[in-house]
Amino acid sequence: MRTLFTLIVVALATAVLGPVVLVAGLFRVREKPGGIYHACMHVWARLAIRASGTRIVVHGADRMSPTDGVVYIANHVSWFDVFALAATLPRYSFIAKSELRKIPLFGPAAAAAGIVFLERDNRKQAFQSYQGAAAQVRDGRSVVVYPEGTRGRDYPLRPFKKGPFVLAIASGAPIVPTLIYGAREVMPRGSFRIRPGEIHVHFLDPVPTAGLSYDDRGALMTRVWQRMADGLHERYGVARTDRPIANPNERVI
Asked: Pick from 45, 190, 233, 236: most CB atoms within 10 A?
């Protein structure tokens, strides 16, 4: 019953808010703090969270940036990772896989709201998408990236892609490592069943990128990966791994 109720609420919210965003985009309404795009995404996510019976607990809220763009690097084990951050952050966009753009109404509305879609198998397009996201960050809008590339089945941190760190360096903005814990219990990967629960969102100390170059992307990635892996282990006993990157020769994505 909870699952069906949540899906109905999300579908209705999309049906109502999606056209609002599309019309705003059609009339070229400018994105700004507290503007129509953020308001619609925030309400959409909040409705999903409330319908699911989930509670969000935020740690380190002072590390969220309401005015300056930052890059939030987060772990990813559930669709509710997205809802939790979208319901919490003050001004943001997301990097999302290109397949989501094909969803009727949701995809076009998300694109109009500024979500950056990434074609992971197209290196050139992925690089252009990251450059576009970096421009958003320089303009003051934060971006959320899941550098593991896709949802995992458990909390141990998986290898990162280097692309998000190329984005962060290009923007010159700090990275805020972000831990999400509890979303898997609400809705794990591979299941459509939704259970009420509690999701903890931890915003860790920012990692500066000012003065770094493209050649520093690997070291930056390793530093952030290690901080997040340590944070999950210290707070929740999640096992550490020794694989911050899947392919040492990976260049961009």
From this structure: 45
